[in-house]
Each structure stands twice: as structure tokens, then as C-alpha cells.
Amino acid sequence: MNRRRWLLVAVALVALLLAPWLLIREEPLRLDDAARAAGSSFVNLSAGQTHYDVTGPDAGPTVVLVHGTTTPAFAWDRNVPALEEAGLRVVRYDLYGRGLSDRVDGDYGLDLYVAQLRELVDHVAPGRPVDLVGFSLGGMVVSEFAIRHSDRVRRLALIAPSGVGTDMPLVAKLAVAPVLGEYLMRLAGTRHLRPTRRDFAHPERHADFDAAYFETIRFEGSRRAVLETLRDVPFNAYEDGFRRLGDLEMPMALIWGRQDAVVPFASSARVRELVRPSTFVAVDDAGHMVSYEQPGIVNAALIAFFSN
Questions:
Q1: Among 36, 85, 127, 308, which residue's beta carbon has the most beta carbons within 10 A?
Q2: DSSP for 159-223?
Q3: pTM metric for this prediction
Q4: Predicted confidence (pLDDT) per residue in 59-92, tens digit
């Protein structure tokens, strides 16, 4: 009888563990032509198709905006209108694995993202230097791009960049483990990494942001893209990269929200030591997504910086 009881317990535990694989289906959609009809422009790059958007005067300086780990290019919705009104030609795009850009095979490390940015810059501004703005993960992407391709960068702005002192949530820390990471992503999915959970100082004001985010992670391969990024990107080991960036002595701006819970404001001191920015803006009453929570302050700082 005891043996039968233990067998039933074992079966129940296995069923419980397998339940997420059998019942949870957060990626019911295929990223096909019909899905991409909602996008603006697309270009086939070496690793896959990239969704991008260009607005503002053709003759203006080109500014390329690079988003963070989970939220695609719509994260810049509150910044683009002001930048283009100031006379800037604004380019924003979805990193591979996000938004309407391809979910690719292989590693999701900085090499992939820097190559994507290089090819996109060649497409939208051939032979010309551009200005770059990188938020969170995007901060590391544009930093590494500037290190490798300094001749293509005029000015660089970092907004709460990851790389030093990033406070990863528990699910993200556990996700680096093989098998366990896949299981946790299936169980908790990218819903656990939803923006209002940690990115805002006032999440109650941005419930619509989560809704938009959830729409972008319904495409097949979205969870794997985030999981592999967590594994392949040095979110807490990029000090040497920032040091090399600082050695370029390139005009740089650094912007940080004082209530940042993802890359705490205290980390800004170390990044400032490493990159030695010509402009530093500390923003009150703003969390990690400072450019979305306090667009007026951030937009004014970016416009002033890129107008010099």
C-alpha cells in the first residue's frame, strides 16, 4: 500500500512539473506577413528581418534609439515626436527577438545586437556618422557599437545602461541554468518580467504599457529570445566595456532615474567614473524607464545634447 501511495505521489509530482508544458501556451502566434502588416518598414539583415521606423526631416542629424531587454521600440513613443519636432531624423527599431523583428537561431549576445545595429545604420545612413541613444540593454549595445565602430558615431547617450550593478529578478538569475531556465520561462514566462513590475516608479499610471508589451511576446520564440539574452549578455560584467568607451573621449550623455529598481541609481556613480560623460542628468520621480515616465526632462536633455 505504501508503495502504491508513493507511486501516486510521484505521478502527481511529474504531472505538476509537466503542466506548464502542456497547458501554458503564451506564444500562439507566428510572425508572418500578416502579423507584420501592423509594422512600418522592414529590412532583411544577415541574421534576419528587422522592423524599423524613420521619422523627422531627411536633412536632420540621424539619431538611432535602441531599446532594452524586454520592451520593443514602442518604448520610445513619448520621445520620438519631440525629437523629430526639434529637427532630428529619428530611427527606432526592434532588436532581434522583440516586437516585429525575427526570432533568430543561435546566441543572443552583444555580437548579434551590434551586428544588427551596424547593418541597420549602413541601411538608413550609409557612409554617415549617427547619434545613438541606448536604454538599459540598449546602453550596452550602443557602447559596444561605438567601441567597434567609432567612426560611425558622432554623439552617444546612455539611459540607465545595464552592465554594472544590475539587480536581476530571481527568475532571471535562475534562468541561466540549463533546463531550469526553460522550465521557469514556460511557467512564469516573460510575464514575470512585465514592465510595470519593476521598471516604473509609479506602475499604477502605466497599466496600458503592460497590455502593449503582452501583445509583442505572443509570437513564437519570444521567451527563448529573452532567456538567451539573460544568459549571453554581461548584465553585471561590462565594466571593461564602459572603460574602453570612456577612453574614446567621445561626447556622451548619461541619464538616470533616481528611483531605478533595475539598475539602481547608485550604479550611476561607477558608470560616470568609467565613461566620463560630458552631460549627466539625474531625474527625480522616475524609475528604470525614465524616458517614458519623465519624457519632458529626458527629451529636453537629449535635444540639447544632440544640438551641440
A1: 36
A2: ES-SSSS----HHHHHTTSTTHHHHHHHHTGGGGG-HHHHS-SSGGG-HHHHHHHHHHT-BTTHH
A3: 0.90
A4: 999 999 999 999 999 999 999 999 999 999 999 9
